[in-house]
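User: tokens in, sequence out, please.
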């Protein structure tokens, strides 16, 4: 099958007429009324998509209303391709769409966005936001998407539209399946270094990291594929106990095909990996490939943040395995809360995901923010 899409030039591929059938699975009112949403009780799971055949999901639009303030961290989004029994995507709803800690923020990137009105509130004070994803998600024989309500309240309104294409031919052999995985450490294990009598300069911070073994793990995958980006959320809870209070001094290290340190891709700092510099001087911003969706304190580096980095123009290719890691502070010298979502494509089967924490564990550090 040729020209399902043109990766190097999406707009340039639009004139190409393809043998595809356009379809949608929505939450619309099949009676012809205006009750275009589903109700999902606390503790229940809804299968919102069940597709048979060969095709590709092209766009997901979704919005929900729930009486639990942190429902975006407690509700899980799961996706299954073909006949697999374990999900290829298992991520809290808000984190999947680009903002961590159970919060909403208005932002737009190339493959993902949130449309959020800060002062718009629904019943029971819940936030009103819409979520969009444009990552293509091919499948050979079928696709399923589930919403798992682990919140402490019912989902009163679950609206969705999932647009996809069906094909007469099988997928080419070089197509990978879309994956997304959530990870969380609260807090990260701190590596102790000798204390300084005065605050050291950045280049003189104590400690050396020559193996990456204590780094925070964003992704640990096996098989053939390519890594396409991540969302990283940090709660800088250990700032007052550290010589240097900026979590952004942690280098990214991406180990490809079982290599040892130094890896093929070694960075110079967390803010550098997310395409900023000198801390986060721009405050919150949203670019096509990178951005800061949440920054509760842009000047003192305390509190919560969420950043994203899409490897759309520069995917990280692997033939056997990939291990995407980042230091939590220079030399892993900070004990902050880290959570993340990794996104990648690969041939099945995929490596087993870490066991998902309970909703309470995922929200252990959540406190109100004036955002």
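Assistant: Sequence out:
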């Amino acid at each position: 099958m040729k020209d399902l899409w043109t990766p190097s030039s999406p707009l340039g591929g639009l004139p190409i007429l393809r043998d595809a059938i356009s379809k949608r699975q929505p939450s619309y009112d099949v009676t012809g009324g205006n009750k275009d949403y589903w109700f999902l009780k606390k503790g229940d799971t809804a299968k919102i998509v069940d597709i048979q055949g060969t095709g590709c999901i092209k766009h997901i639009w979704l919005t929900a209303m729930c009486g639990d303030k942190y429902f975006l961290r407690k509700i899980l989004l799961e996706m299954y391709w073909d006949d697999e029994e374990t999900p290829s995507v298992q991520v809290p709803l808000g984190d999947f769409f680009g903002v961590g800690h159970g919060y909403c923020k208005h932002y737009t990137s190339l493959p993902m966005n949130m449309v959020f009105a800060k002062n718009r509130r629904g019943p029971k004070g819940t936030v009103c936001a819409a979520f969009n994803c444009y990552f293509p998600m091919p499948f050979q024989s079928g696709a399923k998407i589930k919403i798992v309500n682990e919140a402490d309240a019912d989902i009163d309104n679950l609206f969705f539209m999932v647009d996809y294409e069906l094909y007469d031919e099988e997928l080419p052999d070089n197509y990978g399946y879309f994956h997304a995985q959530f990870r969380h450490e609260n807090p990260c294990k701190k590596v102790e270094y000798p204390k300084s009598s005065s605050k050291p300069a950045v280049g003189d911070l104590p400690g050396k990291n020559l193996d990456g073994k204590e780094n925070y793990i964003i992704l640990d995958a096996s098989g053939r594929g390519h890594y396409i980006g991540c969302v990283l959320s940090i709660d800088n809870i250990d700032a007052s106990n550290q010589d240097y209070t900026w979590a952004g001094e942690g280098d990214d290290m991406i180990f490809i095909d079982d290599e040892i340190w130094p890896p093929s891709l070694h960075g110079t700092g967390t803010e550098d990996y997310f395409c900023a510099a000198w801390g986060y001087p721009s405050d919150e911003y949203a670019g096509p490939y990178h951005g800061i969706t949440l920054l509760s304190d842009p000047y003192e580096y305390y509190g919560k943040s969420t950043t994203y980095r899409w490897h759309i123009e520069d995917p990280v290719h692997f033939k056997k395995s990939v291990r995407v890691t980042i230091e939590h502070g220079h030399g892993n010298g900070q004990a902050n809360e880290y959570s993340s979502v990794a996104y990648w494509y690969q041939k099945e089967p995929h490596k087993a995901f870490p066991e998902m924490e309970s909703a309470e564990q995922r929200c252990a550090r959540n406190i109100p923010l004036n955002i």
